Amino acid sequence: MNNIVVFEGFSNVLLEVAISLLPLIIIFLLFQFLLLKLPLEEIKRLVIGMCLSFAGLSLFLQGVQIGFLPAGTSLGEQLGKLDYNWVVILIGFLLGLVTVIAEPLVRVLNYEVEKVSAGHISQRLMMYTLAIGVSIAVAVAMARIIYGIPLLYILAPGYLLALILIRYTSPTFVPVAFDSGTVVTGPMTATFILALAVGVASGTAGRDPLLDGFGLVAIVALAPVLSVLLLGFIYGERGVEDEDR
Q: Rounded to two decimals, what is the model's pTM?
């Protein structure tokens, strides 16, 4: 009986993932026949990889539906009903930290940045930078829900600061910063943290889940942009000091 509950609706998830992957498979096959001409062994390896991706995405989305979304929403609703619901801000800070560490896309980005920079920008430094930025962003997003702060009051100054930092930061960090903003809003953030925000808005008196619960992803996407640009500014200042020496 438990297995039936766990895999309830799994057939729909399998269909959705298959439809999502089908265009990619078709494009690959067209390039294979017309241009790539990869050997059979390479084709076998790619097919195995596609099958693993299909299975992984299907299981992940099923886990999101029966685990992450209900857990995040329920937790948020209970926290929002507390008399001291400001504690959600601290919890959001901690969850933002954990989410970045657990986000697989962040690890890929950090690896690529370290590789391309020949170790000049280490994975650990990037992880710390992104984690601090996202933690602060999630805390700010929770404070926005609790105290009813308009989203524009957060995003407008944030992007204005980003434009200013672009002028003064090291050019190397600018594209990395904006890619980081997209990477951190991956499956972990969009499933658990977003559900938590909607739950907090639902449980907080005077808050509309549709108006106040959403907007968290926009704030989280801005945080790595600012933190990485700030890191680039610090690196640029160090470079100037080294040249002076």
A: 0.82
